[in-house]
User: What shape does this take?
Amino acid sequence: MATKPGISNGARQSRLFTKTRREAPADEVAKNAQLLIRAGYVHKEMAGVYDYLPLGLRTLNKIIGIIREEMNAIGGEEVLLTTLQDPEAWKKTGRWDDKVVDVWFKTHLKNGSELGLGNTHEEALTALMTEQISSYKDLPRYVYQFQSKFRNEARAKSGIMRAREFIMKDLYSFSKDAASHNEFYEKVAHAYENIFARAGIGEKTYRTFASGGSFSKYSHEYQTLCEAGEDTIYIDEAKRLAVNKEVHGDPEVYETSGINKAGLKEAKAIEVGNIFTLGTRFSDALGLVYKDAEGKATSVFMGSYGIGPGRLMGTIVELMADEKGLVWPETVAPFAVHLVSLGKENDEISKTADALYEDLSKAGVEVLYDDRDLRAGEKFAESDLLGIPKRIVVGKEAATSGAFEVVDRKTGEVVKKTRAELLAR
Ligand code: ATP
Ligand code: MG
Assistant: This one.
């Protein structure tokens, strides 16, 4: 089976440089960061600043892969814009001022002129598109990226869910009018539902009416029910919709959404994504216009759509981890299988495990192979902490009878399988 370019199927744990630890840093309060640090998925540099290590990066890349597939499926074209921001574009939209955008990180060139580190990319991309869009024939366009954002967040208590540097998937739509924009907006909403379902949080995630900002009265957030969430929402379970507390007091939101204010349930939630109608706010400010069929110059109608893959990863941890450690859904787990050998160097058990490792990797199964010489109890505790969905244990019995114990991380269920059955999956 062909492997995915750049992603190896197998890895030996003896060659993994990361170590697990019993304790998370004392100053880390978020469950997601505590567990991810203990399991060696991420490293904390300072408050709100995290590095992704091999296992963490594999999971982050799985999440990014799911999002990318769904963005491509609705016609997204992927780019990668620079983080460095020219103040000129931001001055035109009125967002260079720290009083308007309170999360800016700014810096200077050697010659003294100012630069910004991007916290979002409406300005840069809209300015760029003025060179690409001139006629109604150039529309619509849907452009997205996975790109590092910098935000001087005031509070950094939610681990990787609120970082000061984080990768965002940001998609921007360029349409000729509100009607074609609305059509695409609903397509993005549907793609987002697919993403959250594939990442295993679909059932707990609600499309939520929130404040809209510049153009439309409301935007939509995707809010995942979780006690660790920073937001409060009011949910209508039957309609699968919710209203953010910030607009809950506004009677109009209930007319617009069709949600009945009576009988709503208040809940804590994490904003994993959002979708915005921008209208012509940015295209007007930056001169992004097209000529319609009659040759009349018209402002491009825009939308923006964000998801934080790291925040999504943290949300999965918050929702699924148990008292033993991380628990990943198969779709985002760094490996599908944790192969744990209980053998010593060169004994029958290790030889059996080595052979199974080679076979599984060749068959395209992503397998982390614990080939180290450690106590069984220590290996199992570490395996539980890492949260890989299936554990295959190679002990004496497997080496002699050929029956391998397969343990489900989530349910603890144990089944016995032969080598042929394992490779057939
Ligand atoms: P919040 O209200 O939680 O600060 P936001 O309204 O600032 O979020 P956007 O600017 O729209 O969020 O960003 C789009 C997405 O990026 C969010 O839905 C979230 O998933 C993610 N995101 C935002 N801020 C952070 C952060 N500091 N760390 C990690 N992910 C983030
Ligand atoms: Mg924010």
Observations:
- The first strand starts at residue 10 and ends at 12.
- The two ends are 13 Å apart (CA to CA).
- Residues 18 and 411 are 27 Å apart (CA to CA).
- The chain is about 30% helix and 30% strand.
